[in-house]
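#struct-pred

JT: dropping the chains for the assembly here, can someone run the whole complex?
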Amino acid sequence: MKQLLMGNEAIARGAVEAGVDVVTAYPGTPSSEIPMTISKIAKKYGIYFEWSTNEKVAYEVAFAGAITGLRSMVTMKHVGLNVAADAFMASAFVGVDGGFVVVSADDPSMHSSQNEQDNRHYARLANVPCIEPVSPQEAKDFTIKAFELSEEYNLPIILRTTTRVNHTRGDVDIGEILKLERTPKFEKNAKRFVTVPANARVLRKKLLEKMETVKIDLDSTEGDGSLGIIASGIAYNYVKETVSLLELEAEIYKLAVTHPLSQQVTEFLRRHDEVIVVEELEPIVECEVRALAQKEGIPVKIYGKEYIPRAYELNTTRVLNAFRKYKGLPEEVPEELPIPVRPPVLCPGCPHRATFYAMKKAAPKGIYPSDIGCYTLGLVPPISAVDTCFCMGASIGFSCGLAEFVPEKVLCTIGDSTFMHTGLPALVDAVYNQHKFVVVILDNETTAMTGHQPHPGTGVTGMGEKVPKVYPEKLAEAMGINAEVVDPHDVDLTVKVLKEAVNADELRVVIARRKCIFLEGAELGTPYTVTDQCTGCQLCVNTLGCPAIEFIDGKAVINELCTGCGVCAQICPASAIEVVE
Amino acid sequence: MKYDIVLGGVGGQGILLASEIIAEAALKKKYKVMMAETHGMAQRGGSVVSHVRLGDIYGALVPEGQGELVVGFEHMEAFRQLKFLKKGGKIVMNTHQIKPVTLDTYPALDYDLTDYDVLQLNATQLALDLGNVIVMNMVMLGAVSEFADLPVSEQELKEALKGIIPPQFVEIDLKAFEQGAKAVQ
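RK: done, full complex below.
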């Protein structure tokens, strides 16, 4: 039976078909639909699933599954593996018993990320195998294969995907579900599980020996010609299209195993005079292939990043032009009309808009470090209340330093989920080292940007169980910090509380709590309208940047997007905004 | 045979749903189907695009200048996707305009479309006439079905729609579909 599945749904289906026992995750685009799919079906298939507080914890929970013999999977976006890297490196040394699949969803072109990084590097760094699917069907098949390989070599396997695989829908064959019925067991073994230097030295050599034995048969070749093209991962799709459109005579090597390279690659190099390596982002395969040719004394000309762009996602047009350049043909750049950009903005009725407004009122000359979430959109004018965004949790850590070094008032913003993720240790640092700034926790009671996943503050688990909520104000109070909770839609009160916090000249936490408008139980009001009293001062338009307020013929006009938050009515100096009768 | 469609609009307009209906209908006809979507930060009222490819294709992204059809759910968003259309290709364009909050005035959009076969309609108004702006995507789908040469029939699209849409919305969505188709005639 064929079904139309998104790459992420196909990975989830593959894990289920492989009899997965444990799945853990912290959400992150483009990986989030994998755990979201598992979350819905975990109970039905007897899977233990959890939304962990961050990727490192997610990794450790799943790793515990794997070393007790259970088939385990952990999913994250590329930068998530930076957070989990410590656990990841250790797991390669220790090895696994049950199959352990680490899904790293990279985001070339940074569709929804703060950086562009190539996590194939991690496979080399940790010395673990890495395989890459190019379609939803392969996403499912390779997930199943990854569990088998992991158990064959007792190593974690990186299933590396990119946005274009995660978020592509395609036809997928649905297969049988394997029933393993394993009983988890932890057998004490200090030589393996306690990585003190004496043990780690032994494990290091064992890991190198293990990797020597790894042979994964997933690559394939097709076509004929003196030109050889090594197409790594998703680049295969663009190469196929290019070869067909330019009618190139070439043999294509479809490289699915990016670490360790198959012996077949050496054979491929031997039978060609010229080889072009087509890979997205970093020249990883290219460098290895160059080294291989040198080592084996193969007189092949190797090309790569001379033609293939290194930054951003590849597509057929970019690969076509690379091959045109290689053939000495002029590039063909498609005509692009100068259409102005339409950036994403905070939604109408988003509580963060009101909090940003209040912060700027409370400390107009302040510095506003921020973090990763919907609220990063507070950088878009006219809100302009986000001065920095680096990585998860950095708002607080960076503010610890900044508040110490510059004279301005520092007010940082961090979301409720991000606070639990990596904000907490930084807040402890702030208390311990007596840094003086204001932490504004933008608590919309969900992980909104990645699709509204629950977190410890919501009192709901990934399995749908109700549990006691972890309140950020209680955590702050336990550290001895003065913490206050406000409703950001009470504008005057929020400004007052923030002003007091700013002037206190000590570390303060203010929690701006109001549900994301998309959540069940979010209090939406009655839409507002502008009366004849509007003086056309544009204060609402120029400070809130709300998509529901337009400025037409010298007057503000509220359109059908209004959710009735009433923030504009509270700030209007002419009292010209009223609830629709 | 291959048929490439690029659907563009603004986050929240139901572009993904319309794309899914076309893809499901094609899958039922045993076509190879690939569809690329926009998720995450790119939503929240920003530009959204989805590529649907049917037939003899490899990747999910329509190569620029190769598409058979562009569907614009918002006026300037239709023009944004024109680079994907081949000469002589078809455009179905919602003339309704949504001004980005970052712009003072809406752009003029006086571009030459003589190379293409264009259908313009105010799908948003047609949806509002039916009582709910949310069905605009189905008005567009109906217009596409009537105007373009999709390899799936009107009936097949309607069947796919019934399989995807929650039962309580099927009636109004089918009505919207009909309105869109009628707008072409």
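JT: nice. Chain A has a mean pLDDT of 97. The CA atoms of residues 231 and 278 of chain A lie 5 Å apart.
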